[in-house]
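Why this split exists: single-chain examples teach little about how molecules sit against one another. For that reason, every record in the complexes split bundles all components of an assembly together and asks for one structure covering all of them. Below is a record exactly as it appears in the raw files.
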Amino acid sequence: MTVIATESLSKRYPRVTALDRLSLDIGPGVTGLVGANGAGKSTLIKILLGLSPATEGRAAVLGLDVATHGSAIRERVGYMPEHDCLPPDVSATEFVVHMARMSGLPASAARERTADTLRHVGLYEERYRPIGGYSTGMKQRVKLAQALVHDPQLVLLDEPTNGLDPVGRDEMLGLIRRVYTDFGISVLVTSHLLGELERTCDHVVVVDGGKLLRSSSTSDFTQTTTTLAVEVTDSDLHPDGAAALSRALARAGVGLAASEEQGLPGAGHILLVEATGEATYDIVRDTVAELGLGLVRMEQRRHHIAEVFRDHDQQQLAAKGAGGDGA
Amino acid sequence: MAPESSTQIHNIGYRSYDGTRLGRAYARKSLYSQSLRGAYGLGRSAKSKVLPMILFAVMCVPALIIVAVAIAVPGSTDLPIKYTTYALTTQVVIGLYLASQAPQSVSRDLRFKTVPLYFSRPIERVDYVVAKYAAMASALFILTATPLLIMYIGSLLAKFDVGDQTKGFGQGIVSVLLLSLLFAGLGLVMAALTPRRGFGVAAVIALLLIPYGAVSTVQAVAYGTGNTGAIEWLGLFSPITLIDGVQTAFLGATTAFPGGDGPSTGVGAVYLLVVLALIAGSYAALMARYRKAGL
């Protein structure tokens, strides 16, 4: 089943080409749409909602053509914009009820669904207070609630983690994951940060300059050997604990991964260890204990999608250099 | 709510919605009623009820006094003031009401960027504009027609001639209907120009009062210099004198123009055309305004 399908979709403005022959085929689940600012993400969303005609090509959402069935699509799709969109002088409940009715829900159903939805996104007593007094995190939840209140089959979330602190970001990403796993609503979520999508999405689509750069499932990106991040303290005997551990592990035959975090504060204290099996954990623990260092943390670290794309880019560059511009 | 079917168990109790979806026409109607209620502060904070309710009361009190006088004075056979004159004499109150409520109806959605949320739903631009326009016009109609209704009921209680009163009341209603459509259109266009509420309020007041002030001044000068032919044409340049002209020509009203001579039927037709053109123009301007206000 296809949720979103586009076929050589192009959108040209007098000065810029926002989308350039983009062909996508997105199934159910959580799909991340990644691209730098101006990569064409918002333009794509506008076209998918049937609000802006494509210059050429076709697009279908939930099997409905965007050019002819815009209204029917918008009845079954939820949209959370990137920017602020909430009036400060009404309560979340009043606002979401109104938006539910705008989606065609009868008054009693609108009230019932609003109460449910606000509870699901984590707004409780505060939902009766004016939105003006909410924190950024709470406002983002209201924005998400208005996109979900009519129980759509698909929600389009434009940069939902914008402006949130790390904790708020994690909560929002967890919520987005639940929208699909618990509510059964497919999600298209845009971001300019690859990293935050790898935990949330089943599938990642990367666009750049209106073109499709890559589209594959998240597990493809991150299914490689596990890397352990190990952080140790220094001791009087070993003033540079990390270096001492690195030497000791090398002697024990454990492979070290090149750290991606060189130059970051504290990066010198983190060792990336390639875990080949359960035994590696024991070796690390024992080696740390033998050296008399304190083990601050040892955690699994998957490869970041970013690394995969960097590899992908390099391969492309190499291919270009060797075979000329084949595409 | 239907009981949860065994195939739809979610661990946090999410219930999907299988009920009816009433679509575009229903959404438009909901937006209309929400905007109309909002124009009187209903469904909004207690503070926002104060001004519209006070202005509504101020509109009605003179009508009650007129009725009381008509009933109390023995031997009177008609109300002391014509139905069509009422809106002209209370135009400042109508202007204040429009200036305070038109911006709250449209500027808020623009300022807080709520407009994209509407357009990401089944309704289209035309539904939004029609609902907002109709709601503002209805709110003004309630404001201007209620005093007329009070006067009409009062006149019946005073046992004035039913035929005369009904005719006058009908003419007054047609007149305030035109006034509501014209003022709502102009007010919404001015308010939709700016997302800033304060500017919207100022712009609406300026649009109603400055042309009126200018027109009456120039009319007075023309009257003073004996140039009476110009008076009936000058009235085309302000909203309230337009209404004055139309109702004087077609609805048996007494004009407030200097000299007491309103436009003749021929010139009155021009007045009516200008009013209708302004109403259509306001609608077109609003449609154009929201073309760019989408996502």
